[in-house]
Every structure is written in C-alpha cells, then in structure tokens.
Amino acid sequence: MSNQLSVETLLQQEAQLTIPQLDAATAFSIGSGALTYAADQYNGKSVVIDITAVSGATLFRAYQGQIQPDNELWVKKKRNTTIRYETSSLRFGKELASKGRTLADKGLDPLEYTNYGGSFPLRLRNAPHITIAVLTVSGLQDHQDHDVAVNAIKNVFKIETTY
Fold it and tell me: Is residue 46 assigned to a domain?
C-alpha cells in the first residue's frame, strides 16, 4: 500500500468500511484477520493488533513477533486520536499536514496523540457517523499499519470498495 493516499480516499475508506455488528466474535474475527493479513503481506514482521471500544473496554489484543515497549505507546496515541477526532489517525495526520499545522497547534500532547496512521474507526452500517470502537495496528510503517487495519475489515466482511 502506498503512503500517498489522499484525504479524499481516506474519507471514502471510512465511509465504505462500516460493519454490520460488533460483539466478541466480530472483534475476534477482525483482530485475527488483521494478524493474518499482516503476516501474509508483511512477511511476519512484528505487530500488535488492538480493538478497543470507545468506552475503554479491550475487545481484542494480540501480538506477533518481537514487540517493543514503544509499540504500546503508539497504540495508545493512535487510538486516542481516532477516538477524539472520529477519523483514522492517518487521515487526521494528512489533514493536519495539509493545513501546515502540528499537534502543538491543536493543543495536543504528543505523548497522548499522534499524526501517524494505524488506527481506524469501527462504525456500524446502521449508524455510520458514530465511532463505537477503534482498530489499531502498530509495528510497521504507519501507512502499512493503516493498510492492515483497512484490509482486515474489507476481508472479514467481504466489502467491495470503490475508492
């Protein structure tokens, strides 16, 4: 996946990649799908997959390979960004950059938020404007983390996209 995705493409991803439901089985399917996709597409590189409800409940958590302590911090920062702004962390970062702004300009603590990709909002098809949980991937390059999240959702739910 290219790291040159446009904001418009990212908006389309968020609009098209909604899910029919979210329960324990669904979270397990998405998380397991993300692990499988990461292993297949990125040669088994180390990665952490996290699905957390906006309420803070952990719905899925798994590690592959050698995860570093920094990966835990990245998961938190990406997840916080997606929950606060209800957008993928990659889109948030691209929109920020397009305006020539920084985290500091928005009054955001860089230990709590990030402008890097890898976290994607999970929304229900019947309520597509409300983020109910966040799928976060850490361990690869940020656009690759984003790719894992997006393709896990597409593959698990067999979603045909137009972007």
Answer: yes
Q: Specify the pLDDT at position 1.
A: 54
Instruction: Look at residue 163 in the predicted model and tell me its pLDDT.
Output: 84
Number of domains in the chain: 1
Q: CATH number for the domain including 39?
A: 3.30.450.150
Domain containing residue 49: 7-157
Whether 16 maps to a domain, the answer reads: yes
d(CA 10, CA 35): 22
Is position 91 within any domain? yes
Kindly write down the DSSP assignment for every residue of 7-60, as one continuous string.
Answer: HHHHHHHHHH--BS--SHHHHHHHHHHHHHHHHHHTTT--EEEEEEETTS-EEE
Residue pair 102/113 in contact by the 8 Å Cβ criterion: no
pLDDT value of residue 4: 85
pTM above 0.90, yes or no: yes
Is the separation of the CB atoms in 19 and 157 below 8 Å? yes
Q: Average pLDDT for consecutive 10-residue bins of the chain (163 residues)?
A: 83 97 97 97 95 97 92 96 97 96 96 97 96 97 97 96 87
d(CA 93, CA 10): 11
Asked if residue 71 belongs to a domain, the reply is yes
Coil vs helix vs strand at 116 = coil
